[in-house]
Amino acid sequence: MVFSSRNSGWVERDVRIKGLGWMNIELKNEFVAAIGEYVGTVLFLFFAFAGTQVANVPAAAVVNYQPAAANILYIALSFGFSLAVNAWVFYRISGSLFNPAVTLAMVLAGAISWKRHAQPTLSLSPRN
């Protein structure tokens, strides 16, 4: 059900993902979590590497440019804030399991299932 301002009330409408009607609800949840992990990781890396590029570009054409401590701090903060923001945005969708090693530790501790460990590991593993 969705709220419609035109009818000034709740209206019965199908707002589900098209083409996934054959999946059961548990498989749909795992699929959405895997997509959320992938998108969250891409955004995390994009913003972190963008901050790194901004920090490493010299202000003027300097021949022997060496990064200062402020540049290294800027890079560290860009990675930290990028991970914090993406974890905060995606924790309800996928659990924000951006690190497969942490996910494995959670499986071994019994906090999540092996099936939930497989989806971020497969979606985040590098392809050659």
From TrEMBL:
Keywords: Membrane, Transmembrane, Transmembrane helix, Transport. GO terms for molecular function: water channel activity. The chain crosses the membrane at residues 31-51, 72-91, 97-114. It is found in: Membrane. InterPro entries: Aquaporin-like (IPR023271), Aquaporin_transptr (IPR034294), MIP (IPR000425). It is a multi-pass membrane protein. Pfam families: MIP. SUPFAM superfamilies: Aquaporin-like. Its main location: membrane. GO terms for cellular component: plasma membrane. The keyword Zinc-finger does not apply. Belongs to the MIP/aquaporin (TC 1.A.8) family. This is Aquaporin-like protein. It comes from Orbilia ellipsospora.
